[in-house]
Fold:
Amino acid sequence: MKKEHHKCADECTCENENKEKHNCECSEECSCGEDCKCHDGEKCNENCNCESKPSEKEQYYLDLAQRVQAEFENYRKRSYFEMKKAREDGQISVIEVFLPCLDTFKVAKKSITDAKVLEGVEMIESAIMEELKKLGVEKIDAVGQKYDPNLHSALAVASVKDKENDIILEEYQAGYKFNDRVIRYSKVIVNKKED
Structure:
Protein backbone atom coordinates (compact mmCIF):
# COMPACT_ATOMS: atom_id res chain seq x y z
CA MET A 1 0.00 0.00 0.00
CA LYS A 2 1.37 3.44 -1.00
CA LYS A 3 1.53 6.24 1.51
CA GLU A 4 -0.30 9.50 0.84
CA HIS A 5 2.06 12.42 0.43
CA HIS A 6 2.33 15.73 -1.39
CA LYS A 7 4.10 16.00 -4.73
CA CYS A 8 6.94 18.44 -5.12
CA ALA A 9 8.05 19.46 -8.60
CA ASP A 10 11.84 19.05 -8.58
CA GLU A 11 14.28 16.29 -7.71
CA CYS A 12 13.67 13.76 -4.94
CA THR A 13 16.30 13.26 -2.22
CA CYS A 14 14.88 9.92 -1.07
CA GLU A 15 16.79 6.75 -1.80
CA ASN A 16 15.99 5.32 -5.25
CA GLU A 17 14.28 2.21 -3.94
CA ASN A 18 12.03 4.27 -1.65
CA LYS A 19 11.30 6.72 -4.47
CA GLU A 20 10.03 3.93 -6.66
CA LYS A 21 8.43 2.08 -3.81
CA HIS A 22 6.50 5.09 -2.46
CA ASN A 23 6.21 7.13 -5.67
CA CYS A 24 7.91 10.03 -3.87
CA GLU A 25 8.49 13.25 -5.79
CA CYS A 26 9.94 15.48 -3.08
CA SER A 27 12.50 18.26 -3.65
CA GLU A 28 15.11 19.72 -1.40
CA GLU A 29 13.69 23.22 -1.70
CA CYS A 30 10.10 22.96 -0.44
CA SER A 31 8.24 25.26 1.98
CA CYS A 32 4.59 24.26 1.77
CA GLY A 33 4.68 23.07 5.35
CA GLU A 34 3.39 19.56 4.63
CA ASP A 35 5.37 16.56 5.77
CA CYS A 36 6.44 14.05 3.14
CA LYS A 37 6.92 10.70 4.83
CA CYS A 38 8.70 8.42 2.40
CA HIS A 39 10.59 6.40 5.01
CA ASP A 40 7.88 4.91 7.16
CA GLY A 41 7.21 7.96 9.35
CA GLU A 42 10.45 9.86 8.76
CA LYS A 43 10.60 13.10 6.77
CA CYS A 44 12.61 12.91 3.59
CA ASN A 45 13.14 16.68 3.55
CA GLU A 46 12.13 19.77 5.47
CA ASN A 47 12.34 22.48 2.80
CA CYS A 48 9.46 22.62 0.33
CA ASN A 49 8.56 25.07 -2.54
CA CYS A 50 5.09 23.75 -3.23
CA GLU A 51 2.42 26.34 -3.96
CA SER A 52 -0.46 25.34 -1.78
CA LYS A 53 -3.79 27.13 -1.96
CA PRO A 54 -4.52 29.03 1.28
CA SER A 55 -7.43 27.84 3.34
CA GLU A 56 -10.52 30.02 3.81
CA LYS A 57 -9.26 31.22 7.17
CA GLU A 58 -5.79 32.01 5.77
CA GLN A 59 -7.37 33.86 2.81
CA TYR A 60 -9.55 35.86 5.22
CA TYR A 61 -6.47 37.00 7.17
CA LEU A 62 -4.54 37.76 3.98
CA ASP A 63 -7.42 39.93 2.73
CA LEU A 64 -7.69 41.60 6.13
CA ALA A 65 -3.95 42.37 6.15
CA GLN A 66 -4.17 43.88 2.66
CA ARG A 67 -7.15 46.05 3.69
CA VAL A 68 -5.36 47.24 6.82
CA GLN A 69 -2.25 48.03 4.79
CA ALA A 70 -4.28 50.01 2.22
CA GLU A 71 -6.15 51.89 4.95
CA PHE A 72 -2.89 52.76 6.68
CA GLU A 73 -1.41 54.03 3.38
CA ASN A 74 -4.48 56.24 2.85
CA TYR A 75 -4.25 57.48 6.46
CA ARG A 76 -0.56 58.29 6.01
CA LYS A 77 -1.23 60.33 2.84
CA ARG A 78 -4.21 62.10 4.41
CA SER A 79 -2.18 62.92 7.53
CA TYR A 80 0.65 64.34 5.42
CA PHE A 81 -1.69 66.70 3.53
CA GLU A 82 -3.53 67.73 6.71
CA MET A 83 -0.22 68.45 8.45
CA LYS A 84 1.01 70.44 5.42
CA LYS A 85 -2.22 72.50 5.34
CA ALA A 86 -2.07 73.12 9.11
CA ARG A 87 1.53 74.32 8.78
CA GLU A 88 0.57 76.67 5.91
CA ASP A 89 -2.44 77.97 7.87
CA GLY A 90 -0.12 78.71 10.80
CA GLN A 91 2.33 80.55 8.57
CA ILE A 92 -0.49 82.56 6.98
CA SER A 93 -1.89 83.61 10.37
CA VAL A 94 1.55 84.94 11.40
CA ILE A 95 2.05 86.72 8.05
CA GLU A 96 -1.41 88.34 8.33
CA VAL A 97 -0.35 89.91 11.63
CA PHE A 98 2.61 91.61 9.89
CA LEU A 99 0.70 92.90 6.85
CA PRO A 100 -0.58 96.07 8.59
CA CYS A 101 3.05 96.79 9.60
CA LEU A 102 4.04 96.64 5.92
CA ASP A 103 1.22 99.09 5.15
CA THR A 104 2.79 101.65 7.51
CA PHE A 105 5.84 101.86 5.23
CA LYS A 106 3.64 103.35 2.50
CA VAL A 107 2.22 105.95 4.90
CA ALA A 108 5.64 106.67 6.42
CA LYS A 109 7.30 107.22 3.02
CA LYS A 110 4.70 109.87 2.13
CA SER A 111 5.48 111.89 5.23
CA ILE A 112 9.31 111.70 5.09
CA THR A 113 10.98 114.77 3.57
CA ASP A 114 14.64 113.91 4.25
CA ALA A 115 16.07 111.95 1.27
CA LYS A 116 18.53 109.97 3.46
CA VAL A 117 15.81 108.90 5.89
CA LEU A 118 13.53 107.95 3.00
CA GLU A 119 16.33 105.87 1.47
CA GLY A 120 16.85 104.07 4.81
CA VAL A 121 13.14 103.30 5.18
CA GLU A 122 13.00 101.95 1.62
CA MET A 123 16.03 99.73 2.34
CA ILE A 124 14.29 98.29 5.42
CA GLU A 125 11.06 97.71 3.48
CA SER A 126 12.99 96.06 0.65
CA ALA A 127 14.89 93.76 3.06
CA ILE A 128 11.64 92.67 4.74
CA MET A 129 10.00 91.98 1.37
CA GLU A 130 13.04 89.90 0.28
CA GLU A 131 12.78 87.73 3.38
CA LEU A 132 9.03 87.30 2.96
CA LYS A 133 9.61 86.30 -0.66
CA LYS A 134 11.91 83.49 0.55
CA LEU A 135 8.99 82.22 2.66
CA GLY A 136 6.69 82.27 -0.37
CA VAL A 137 4.98 85.64 0.25
CA GLU A 138 4.54 87.80 -2.80
CA LYS A 139 3.00 91.25 -3.32
CA ILE A 140 0.18 91.28 -5.87
CA ASP A 141 0.79 93.63 -8.80
CA ALA A 142 -1.99 96.19 -9.07
CA VAL A 143 -1.43 99.65 -10.58
CA GLY A 144 -1.43 99.47 -14.39
CA GLN A 145 -2.67 95.85 -14.38
CA LYS A 146 -6.04 94.66 -15.66
CA TYR A 147 -8.57 94.18 -12.87
CA ASP A 148 -8.79 90.52 -11.79
CA PRO A 149 -11.48 89.66 -9.20
CA ASN A 150 -9.36 86.69 -8.09
CA LEU A 151 -6.61 89.07 -6.95
CA HIS A 152 -8.16 92.52 -6.57
CA SER A 153 -11.07 94.04 -4.68
CA ALA A 154 -12.53 97.17 -6.32
CA LEU A 155 -13.28 99.90 -3.81
CA ALA A 156 -14.31 102.47 -6.39
CA VAL A 157 -14.32 103.25 -10.09
CA ALA A 158 -13.00 106.30 -11.91
CA SER A 159 -13.21 107.38 -15.51
CA VAL A 160 -9.95 108.27 -17.23
CA LYS A 161 -10.34 108.58 -21.00
CA ASP A 162 -6.71 107.92 -21.99
CA LYS A 163 -6.59 104.63 -19.97
CA GLU A 164 -8.10 101.32 -21.01
CA ASN A 165 -11.24 99.93 -19.46
CA ASP A 166 -10.75 97.76 -16.31
CA ILE A 167 -7.20 99.03 -15.77
CA ILE A 168 -6.27 99.62 -12.12
CA LEU A 169 -5.59 103.30 -11.58
CA GLU A 170 -4.67 103.33 -7.92
CA GLU A 171 -3.93 100.89 -5.12
CA TYR A 172 -5.49 101.79 -1.79
CA GLN A 173 -4.09 98.77 0.09
CA ALA A 174 -1.52 96.23 -1.13
CA GLY A 175 -2.54 92.61 -1.57
CA TYR A 176 -0.39 89.54 -0.91
CA LYS A 177 -0.20 85.89 -1.96
CA PHE A 178 1.36 82.99 -0.09
CA ASN A 179 2.41 80.10 -2.35
CA ASP A 180 -0.16 81.19 -4.97
CA ARG A 181 -2.90 81.41 -2.32
CA VAL A 182 -4.32 84.92 -1.84
CA ILE A 183 -4.06 85.94 1.81
CA ARG A 184 -5.21 89.54 1.22
CA TYR A 185 -6.79 91.04 -1.88
CA SER A 186 -5.48 94.33 -3.28
CA LYS A 187 -7.95 97.14 -2.64
CA VAL A 188 -7.98 99.19 -5.80
CA ILE A 189 -9.65 101.89 -7.89
CA VAL A 190 -10.55 100.67 -11.36
CA ASN A 191 -11.00 102.62 -14.59
CA LYS A 192 -14.46 102.46 -16.15
CA LYS A 193 -15.03 104.54 -19.24
CA GLU A 194 -18.44 106.09 -19.58
CA ASP A 195 -20.32 104.94 -22.66
Q: What stands out?
A: The first helix runs from residue 16 to 22.
